Amino acid sequence: MSRTLAQVGEFGLIDRIHEIIRVEGVKLPKNTVGIGDDCAAFQPRPGYDLLVTCDCMVENRHYLPRFITPLDLGRRAMVLNISDVGAMGGRPRYALVSLGLRSSTLLEDVMAIYRGFLAELNPFQAFIIGGNVTQSTDANFIDITLIGEVETGRMVRRSTAEPGDVILVTGYPGQSAAGLEILLQTEAGESWDRNPLINAYQYPAHRAFEGRAIAGTGLAHAMIDTSDGLLGDLGHICDESAVGAVLYEKDLPVSEALRQFAETSGRGTLDYVLKESDDYELMVTCTPDHVAGICDAIADTSDVPVTRIGTVTGNKGRIEIIDAAGDSRSVAVSGWDHFSQ
Amino acid sequence: MSRTLAQVGEFGLIDRIHEIIRVEGVKLPKNTVGIGDDCAAFQPRPGYDLLVTCDCMVENRHYLPRFITPLDLGRRAMVLNISDVGAMGGRPRYALVSLGLRSSTLLEDVMAIYRGFLAELNPFQAFIIGGNVTQSTDANFIDITLIGEVETGRMVRRSTAEPGDVILVTGYPGQSAAGLEILLQTEAGESWDRNPLINAYQYPAHRAFEGRAIAGTGLAHAMIDTSDGLLGDLGHICDESAVGAVLYEKDLPVSEALRQFAETSGRGTLDYVLKESDDYELMVTCTPDHVAGICDAIADTSDVPVTRIGTVTGNKGRIEIIDAAGDSRSVAVSGWDHFSQ
To answer: Using CB atoms, which residue from A43, A51, A158 is nearest to B41?
Structure first.
């Protein structure tokens, strides 16, 4: 019978967190200070820049507990952050985890969340070196700060796309949004395990190994993850790089599962592919003659498909879509706005 | 008329945050990436270890909005974190701020919170380089990750106290707890500005400059801030250093204001000084012949009083208090438990 946090207390919880990290995580090197002091501490490696990102998930806002196990919740929260580090070409090294938890939360659920974190960090030999736990009165939340490293000079930013660049994207953006839509229409208790769209929502993957491989080529001009939706993030590239973009509708990657689902859902396929969706794919720009080099580097790392979806233009701030008939239309950049929805 | 976050939207809010940091914060060096990419990035300085801490403040749990202005809330949230970096001997350099905010929050209040952050960071030439904002459904929260640096070899930990060490403490721990007690008994609208105990609660100060000065001497064995209460943090030193401690009741620093208040409050003075209280003083241990060196280093930095309150012993895990009559009693370590209260 699992106990609640009110029963084990803060220091009991911290002891258990300490233990799970020690037993199931990667061993801390000698010159690193982990949990148990006023700060964590480490020695940065010469020749590397440090990357830092933080992302927060609030219950009922970014996830619905009835659709996700604590283990998968921990994985998802860490994947968001790993994706950000990967999108700059970096390797995750150190995580700090801040949890806001109701007193009625079960200790075993918190342990499962930590197992989820470690499942994502261990492949990078990355450690949880700090954090804090606090009582929340209403919604639980998970706020992670992830520190990564990238060889000095190898970082790929979103502000350095150039007119004439090809735009590439990995995987099938939009599947996750479709998966969530299916889940929301599902009756409680219904089984949903075999649907690839639902899987895309339930088990999001980062592309950090691919991101590192891309940065390693030195050929990418700009890179970003699609966490604000393909169009939202293309908008970020255009804003920060002071460029525009043209997308070719016929070239956008649409999985067979999404194509079939969109026929019945009442929303067009493009709506899923372009708008907000919890996929963490990479969007990359490079000159046309470097496309092959970047695709080869990705293929050496994983079998994720890479699709050429458009071109960077000098039309600052303007994104156009060319449809199958060859007609062009401007589109408004659409991303996830946390306060208007 | 100030607008709400629902009215300005997430991207409107982020633009304003970006602007206030650019205009009112310290200028980012060229090789540093601030807000506006997947990650922030910086080049660590050779010869320094990095320190990282994160601390979270939840509305109605760690602060009561009716007693604190948004500006002071921002200052307080940053002070907690600066205190942790200072307690390891470090200098704050980079902050990431994660905010959970209701849609009804006023934009001008968020700006005031950021002004509070900057008021505390600017004296260290430290920057806000990243973060995120998310909608909270119930209580607002502020989660800060602060990265500091300390010269390699100069870090002071809590795990390195030695039997025979003298225990020193800065300032007057416990004043803040008394101040909060007064506030909670105050009628709405009553003026409370001139009470030093209330000031201690309302405007907590860190001792990070003093902490750096102490670390700079190379004379301190162990150091910690008193954020879990004097006794709670002495307990942390004892646990991590595998030592015990004796405190002398007559030597504990009690301000005149606290002494007067305790006479009427029904709780003893010791209760305030030893137990949880939002003071961020430093507790330091060193050999008896190094007390003067440490006190001199502090005096060169500020006029905060330093008091010798006890001795580290070999009685692992045992903390004793010697009262005015010379009688000894063991005390249970008491700190702030977030889930049991």
So the answer is: A51
